[in-house]
Amino acid sequence: MNFKKLKLTIQEGIRDMAIIWANEMKMTVKDEAVLIFFVLAPLVYPLLYAWIYNNEVVREVPVAVVDYSHSAESREFIRLCDASPDVKVAYHCMSLTEARNLVGHQQVKGVLLFPSDFDTNINRGDQAHVSLFCDMSLMLTYKAIFQTVQTVSSKMGSEIQLSRNSGFTDRDDEVTVRPLEYDEVPIFNPSGGYGSFLLPAVLILVIQQTLLLGIGLAAGTSRENNRYGELIPIDRHYRGLFRIVMGKALCYFMIYALVASYLTLILPKLFHFPLLSSPQALLGLLVPYILSCIFFGITLSCLVRYRENVMLLVVVTSLPFLFLSGISWPSEAIPVFWKGVSWLLPSTFGVKGFVAVNSMGATLQDISTEYFALWAQSLIYFFTSCLFYKVQIDRAIRQQPVAEA
Q: 3-state class of 60 per DSSP?
């Protein structure tokens, strides 16, 4: 008898959960704002990001040249800089003041200054100097100019050293110029591109933020449409905590299973970004990440009463969440308090895990910390969702007789 009653209870729970799922899916389709954040934003927003950063690195950064030397050596230095893919000699100035004005008007991003004794020092065997002034407001342009000037300086220095070398063979010259040989092998981001560095973090953060927005807007709509002003309708299908949370979560999970597949598989391949993840590792990471984001969103939706508040909260926190993920700024350098706050966010572990899986080819064993942390967050936020829904249901039941009277 007890087994029969348990079977009926399970069947009723599954039926109610299916009804809640269907109601939530209908509400999502009918609500234009929720549909925009669940479908349109994840499709278009990352596409725009990927398109903007598809060049990966900056090219032809304009610089100004102030040449007081007017020598063959300075002209050779300028020619080599201009021939590089990253730097373009846009202006030749008569004075440093003129070049400074060009930087102030953002017409150039750097200034090369050759002193009058540049060639004299070289021909005399003394050390010559080249001054480089860079606009540090944009690190990408600074990096392009600095590395180009450094490479040209090293190349010309080697040639000058070889011209004065008394070695008898080419091997002697090679050892003189490079007594210590080294191999530079860039890993995980061979192109050094900004898009390959930033896009994986943005894709994972988009999943979290759009889920928070959509779930919060859906909860706000439910409150506005319910005459008792509560999140939970007064309906027998909505009396069980487990069926309520799982019914809603199933709706959101089905939608974001497709969205996440697009963001993590199609988009990187479309724009030729690194894609080293194995199906097992990617699936193993995304399932707990999406679930933790869903339950985190449901928990927050119970704390926010109006639709407008959800948009303000999520938009304002998007940039801090990116910083706290440890991608744009090393997590080791984040203060202890904010590091503790970051552990409450699914995006912190999701971003680190996805970067390792997608850009480094890591397995689930390699990201075991992030993997188990996401499952722990899923369980914790599932129970907090049930707790807040219980409060909502009890409040709605208490208010029902008063409202009918």
A: coil
- Which residue ranges make up each domain of the chain? 2-54+193-404, 61-177
Q: Which CATH architecture has domain 61-177?
A: 3-Layer(aba) Sandwich (3.40)
Q: Are strands 61-67 and 87-93 parallel, antiparallel or unpaired?
A: parallel
CB 41 within 8 Å of CB 210: yes
Predicted confidence (pLDDT) per residue in 66-107, tens digit: 999 999 999 999 999 999 999 999 999 999 999 999 999 999
- Exposed/middle/buried for residue 337 (C-beta within 10 Å: 0-12, 13-18, 19+): exposed
Using the 8-state DSSP alphabet, how is residue 236 labeled?
G
| 163 closest CA partner among 125, 111, 201, 219 | 125
Looking at residue 92, its pLDDT comes to 94
Using alpha carbons, list the distances in angstroms from residue 278 to 271, 354, 373, 375: 19, 11, 20, 20
User: Which of 205, 185, 187 has the alpha carbon at shortest distance from 342?
Assistant: 205
| Distances, alpha carbon 112 to alpha carbons 101, 105, 135, 209, in Å | 14, 17, 12, 44
Tell me the residue type at 166: S
Q: Is residue 203 within 8 Å of 264, Cβ to Cβ?
A: yes
